[in-house]
Design a protein that fits this description.
The structure is a homodimer of 429-residue chains.
Chain A lengths: L4 H9 L7 E6 L2 E7 L10 E5 L5 E5 L5 E6 L19 E6 L6 E3 L6 E3 L3 H6 L4 H4 L1 E6 L10 H15 L5 E5 L5 H11 E2 L5 E4 L12 H14 L5 E6 L7 E5 L3 E3 L8 E3 L6 E4 L2 E4 L12 E2 L7 E5 L6 H10 L2 E6 L7 H12 L3 E6 L12 H9 L2 E2 L5 H14 L3 H9 L13
Chain lengths: 429, 429
């Protein structure tokens, strides 16, 4: 039942044992699950893991494959903390992915590391259990700068599983660095939501007195239990003090400060809700709970890049990238401009069938390619403007749209449709 | 005296005549000047232009060279508008580069095109002449998305020439798209300033009733005439109405909205001054006029790139770019992070001698590579954090520092020195 050959070597190198949660990755693809024993009828290069959803899959490894332990299996001595359950309370799922909100400080080095147990996370905020029954799971335990496209897919499926099995809402503790990318991905992947999906982070780890983790988690829980919201949102502090939190639409939010607790801002939109104590105030229109079930549209095509234009940006740079992808999101200057040289490259790329979409690096405001001659030339080149959509949201959406549709025209139709509030209904001029 | 061969063909293609202001460009390099007659003793492939500073230079052309007319020479019939001169008033130079502030609307197409005469610009705001004598020049007539590194150099020299020949300040009308890049470049290139250099733009062209051009130009003039400021600043509307304007430090400013008149924001800094009517209120510390002369440090090495990290950013993308440049500015997530894969690429690039500097794509806040394990690994790789410096400013500064210093360590010393207020003195934690 032991693995041998290359799989054996990789597992040994990672000190992984049967029952541990491991991540098997190769390039941009990664799968996480419990390491299962080797089957005699499996080929030598196959490692078998049990996914979060209960399915076992076999993954073929090669020399580029990496394996690491996400969390060790529980030993028999280690008492598992069992979360209490009250039949009069609603179920809320907490699917932890890692990040500061689920992290601890290594006092030896002073550095912050991801924590490994969602139960620990919940027990650090016992007030949660006054509000609901918590179904806590650790799906990933990574810093969010290491999130990959495949993590979004696994997360979307896990969230849907919970909402389709009785949870009234799902809380996703997540590193703040790429929280806005993940919230955008979930916004597009999860359709017909029957409850809120609250992506929540913290800028200070929960062992620090100034931690924002507790208030953010409590407000997330209230949104799940006490509201009819059914969208993917990012919930974080609304100002630097602990007075209130804001829920931002998952497609319209961006981390706008490296360290402040109110780092997240709704861009070209109002926040969806403001939560102060037990009071939830909706501050813009929102989608209400469907009767379900939640649909998962998790096909995604990662062959896309996002390029920020700037003076001195070389046409060769654009050409090299465009040759290697199916789609490019350009974050142009001002209303969505690039230099004459890059315009030539855009034209060439579009002629070769590459999707080129235009956003603005100003972040605030809308692109408009009808005002200046450069913009009109951009339009003529076949590049497509994306209104007031954030560059980051556009990049995530393009990969999703290319995964959902085969035909060039169908991808464009999806890109220009308002799927998850990514275009403001009241567009800036 | 006529040009023949390839030069003749290029000039004919551009309909350029002796006396016209032309731009001769090849790839990322461009020179602008008055087309001079062909000399019999010059080689056939040489075109001669008179630069703004009065020098004639010969430029060798080849098949990749492009020539275009920036402005036609004045015909004898066309009466030159002569700006009045009052010996009791101070001289302010207006060096126009193009953009909306110096543009007109083509009513046939509705598109906005750059205008060609600084005199026209000045006469559209005759109130300027109440405040000072205006020395108006058209240096360039381009949309700012087409600004190149070499334009910054020519502009720096032209500005210094004016300040070193009696102008109390220089106003630089400029397109807003890359205004922040140009202001950063001038901030590093111009040392020992004896007066303000006011980069000014408009979000609405001056023929429109809502134009911000007039108020912005008047406030710029006041700053030149009535203050002891000696820094490069960007001056634009402070709010959407016409009530007041703000002067932002040239290294700390970014276009944060695609269309609003108050699009420019000081990032991680207070604006330097607020101008309301004739009232100038300084809102932060600033450099005062030196006794001159202004020094021009315009050597710049354009072999740099700026890369924004995001989930799905391919290591191959980073490697390709790093192979083709001497320096990379990374706009990382949060406190300055990238994924493990990109970290490997950073390490490889640094090992090969590439300068790698780290900023944050949050824009607000400072990078800090000491908090998380990813950051500590970044530091160990040899990447260098740049505090609260804007990614765009860091990119411009890196090209400038690589132009100023040969040795790796000397470039680093320049990068970490606070040359033009690019680091906030009161750094965010």
């Amino acid at each position: 039942m032991k693995y041998s050959g290359l799989v054996g070597e990789l597992l040994e190198g990672a000190a992984a044992e049967i029952g541990d949660v491991i991540e098997v990755s190769r390039g941009d693809q990664a799968q996480t699950g419990i390491l299962m024993p080797h089957h005699d009828f499996s080929a030598d290069q196959i490692v078998t893991i049990k996914l979060y959803n209960g399915y076992n899959i076999g993954i073929r490894v090669d020399k580029k494959t990496k394996i690491k332990v996400v969390s060790k299996k529980e030993s028999k001595d280690q008492k598992r903390q069992v979360l209490p359950r009250d039949a009069n309370k609603k179920d809320v799922a907490v699917i932890s992915t890692g990040g500061t909100i689920a992290s601890y400080v290594d006092y030896r080095t002073g550095a912050v590391h991801p924590a490994i147990s969602a139960e620990e996370l919940v027990f650090s905020v016992p007030e949660l259990l006054d509000l609901c029954n918590v179904r806590a799971k650790v799906l990933y335990s990574i810093l969010s700068e290491n999130m990959k496209v495949s993590h979004w897919q696994g997360l979307a499926r896990a969230v849907a599983d919970e909402l389709n099995s009785g949870a009234v809402g799902v809380i996703v503790p997540h590193g703040t660095d790429t929280l806005g990318f993940t919230s955008a991905a979930l916004s597009f992947m999860l359709r017909n939501l029957n409850g809120p999906v609250v992506c929540v982070g913290a800028q200070r780890s929960s062992d620090r007195p100034s931690s924002d983790a507790i208030i953010n988690l409590l407000a997330s829980t209230r949104l799940c239990v006490d509201s009819d919201l059914a969208e993917v949102v990012v919930l974080m502090h609304g100002e630097t003090s602990d007075s209130y939190t804001l829920a931002h639409r998952g497609t319209k939010v961006r981390k706008m400060h490296s360290s402040r607790r109110d780092a997240f801002k709704s861009i070209n939109a109002e926040p969806i809700a403001r939560i102060e104590g037990s009071q939830i105030t909706f501050t813009s229109e929102y989608e209400k709970r469907s009767r379900g079930p939640v649909e998962v549209k998790d096909k995604i095509d990662g062959r896309a890049s996002m390029l920020h234009f700037y003076p001195g940006f070389e046409a060769e740079h654009f050409d090299m990238i465009a040759q290697n992808v199916k789609g490019v999101v350009v974050a142009g200057t001002g209303l969505g401009h690039v230099s004459e040289e890059i315009l030539d490259s855009v034209r060439k790329a579009v002629d070769k069938g590459v999707h080129v979409y235009i956003t603005t690096q100003c972040l605030y405001g809308s692109v408009n390619l009808n005002v200046y001659s450069t913009g009109r030339d951009m339009l003529a080149s076949g590049a497509i403007p994306l209104g007031d959509m954030l560059p980051e949201t556009a990049y995530v959406k393009l990969m999703w749209a290319m995964g959902q549709a085969e035909e060039h025209g169908d991808v464009k139709k999806l890109m220009l449709a308002n799927i998850a509030g990514e275009f403001s209904t009241r567009r800036p001029v």
